[in-house]
């Protein structure tokens, strides 16, 4: 997904190793710098309500920018990004957890519209690139959190993000966070070329963000710029994120980029490295099986999926295997795999039922009505023994099986 010149990308990468992020407040008056530093201290202490209140009135473009930053990052709840619940957190409280479990407790709401704040300030003092950047971040966050459900639609938001960021960028007022957020909004808008521009801008300031390299690689992939995607995905691996799943995704993306750029050997080698790094995970073997199917190596795919299923013998893993087979139009191989692993489910009544239930569907998919009907009877019998299922779920499965029996009997 992306196609620039690999040489230029390598040059940019080598240069950005020595770059530093830009301080938005570097030209602010000293009293404003002091106020911002005090506010940042409160944010560090998770005193978000106090931080917002500490900034006082909107008599500086830098204050409006900081308030907008708080509104887009450290709220407990937001109503269309103009009404906010802020809270000073206790030491054991987590902001993300509060958001997930918010139930309308007796928190007070704060009305603050960055759009109105900017408009009021500009009417008196004139436009400022600091305010352009505030709006670019605000509009990016509105789209990321509300999508097309926000007051302004995505096309208008896209134009507002670009016009405001470009104005700030031309004045040298931007930083890693603002460029990265604009890039992420654009990738969800499927505006990949602009997304690439924003991510590259961010990475010139801070080149050790594995997630940003990963997202850049995705944007390259969607733009069919595969050699550049290889480089970006490799950098995502070089700067790993904290969680194993994120690290594994980076290897998987690199393998896909290699494959799409015409280097199947490198794609396979990447997955072998992934196996070495995460030897106990089924994920690398699942990915390797998918690659083998793309290359038409059915026996090799079976072996890889077999390893994955042995490492994770459950419904989720089995479902992933069948999804790979069906997406590649290999229903016969899906039947082969399922029949070959019925014994593995012997001591798990739910898994045993699922394998047989899928087998019924797979036979129906291949127009083998006789085998499908036989499998339907087996599935109904096994359904009675699937003790972990609730009555509602059991009834749903039973209804589906009977629908298959009616359709196949015609």
General description of the model:
The protein is an all-alpha fold. The chain has 21 helices and 3 strands. The protein has a 3-stranded antiparallel β-sheet, with no helix packed on it. Helix 7 runs antiparallel to helix 8. It is elongated. 41% of the residues are buried. The N terminus is likely disordered.
Helix content: 55-70%
Element pattern in H and E? HHHHEEHEHHHHHHHHHHHHHHHH
Mean pLDDT: 92
Strand order of the largest sheet: 1-2-3
- What structural class do the secondary elements suggest? mainly alpha
- Overall spatial form: elongated
Give me the oligomer status. Answer: single chain
Total DSSP E strands: 3
Gyration radius (Cα, Å) is 27 Å
Q: Helical region count?
A: 21
C-alpha end-to-end distance: 47 Å
Strand content: under 5%
Main sheet properties: 3 strands, antiparallel
Low-confidence stretches: 1-19
Summarize the helices and strands and which ones pair or pack.
Elements: H1 6-16, H2 30-44, H3 48-54, H4 61-73, E1 77-79, E2 83-85, H5 95-100, E3 110-111, H6 114-125, H7 129-146, H8 154-170, H9 176-189, H10 192-205, H11 210-222, H12 226-238, H13 244-260, H14 264-277, H15 283-294, H16 298-311, H17 315-327, H18 331-340, H19 349-365, H20 369-385, H21 391-408
Antiparallel strand pairs: 1-2, 2-3
Helix pairs in contact: 2-3, 4-6, 4-7, 7-8, 7-9, 8-9, 9-10, 10-11, 11-12, 11-13, 12-13, 13-14, 13-15, 14-15, 15-16, 15-17, 17-18, 18-19, 19-20, 20-21
């Amino acid at each position: 997904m992306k196609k620039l010149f690999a040489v230029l990308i390598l040059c940019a990468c080598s240069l950005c190793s020595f770059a530093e992020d830009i301080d938005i407040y570097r030209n602010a008056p000293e009293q404003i710098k002091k106020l911002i530093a005090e506010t940042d201290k409160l944010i560090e202490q998770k005193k978000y309500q106090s931080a917002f209140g500490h900034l006082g009135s909107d008599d500086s473009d830098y204050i409006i920018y900081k308030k907008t930053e708080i509104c887009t990052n450290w709220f407990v709840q937001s109503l269309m990004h103009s009404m906010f619940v802020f809270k000073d957190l206790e030491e054991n409280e987590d902001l993300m957890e509060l958001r997930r479990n918010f139930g309308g407790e007796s928190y007070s709401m704060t009305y603050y519209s960055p759009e109105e704040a900017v408009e009021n300030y500009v009417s008196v003092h004139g436009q400022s690139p600091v305010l352009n950047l505030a709006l670019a971040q605000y509009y990016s966050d509105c789209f990321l959190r509300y999508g097309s459900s926000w007051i302004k639609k995505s096309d208008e938001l896209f134009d507002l993000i670009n016009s405001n960021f470009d104005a700030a960028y031309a004045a040298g007022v931007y930083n890693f966070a603002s460029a990265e957020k604009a890039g992420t909004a654009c990738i969800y808008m499927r505006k990949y070329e602009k997304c690439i521009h924003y991510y590259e801008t961010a990475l010139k300031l801070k080149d050790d963000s594995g997630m940003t390299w990963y997202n850049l690689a995705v944007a390259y992939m969607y733009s069919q710029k595969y050699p550049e995607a290889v480089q970006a995905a490799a950098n995502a691996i070089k700067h790993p994120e904290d969680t194993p799943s994120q690290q594994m995704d980076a290897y998987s993306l690199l393998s896909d980029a290699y494959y799409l750029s015409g280097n199947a050997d490198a794609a396979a080698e990447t997955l072998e490295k992934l196996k070495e790094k995460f030897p106990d995970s089924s994920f690398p073997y699942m990915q390797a099986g998918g690659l083998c199917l793309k290359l038409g190596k059915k026996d090799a795919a079976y072996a890889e999926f077999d390893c994955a299923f042995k490492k994770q013998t459950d419904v989720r893993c089995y479902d992933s295997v069948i999804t790979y087979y069906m997406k590649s139009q290999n229903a016969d191989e899906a039947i082969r795999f399922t029949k070959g692993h019925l014994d593995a489910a012997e001591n798990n009544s739910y898994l045993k039922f699922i394998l047989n239930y899928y087998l019924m569907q797979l036979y129906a998919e291949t127009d083998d009505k006789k085998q499908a009907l036989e499998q339907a009877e087996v599935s109904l019998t096994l359904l009675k023994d699937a003790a972990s299922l609730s009555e509602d779920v059991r009834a749903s499965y039973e209804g589906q099986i009977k629908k298959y029996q009616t359709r196949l009997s015609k």
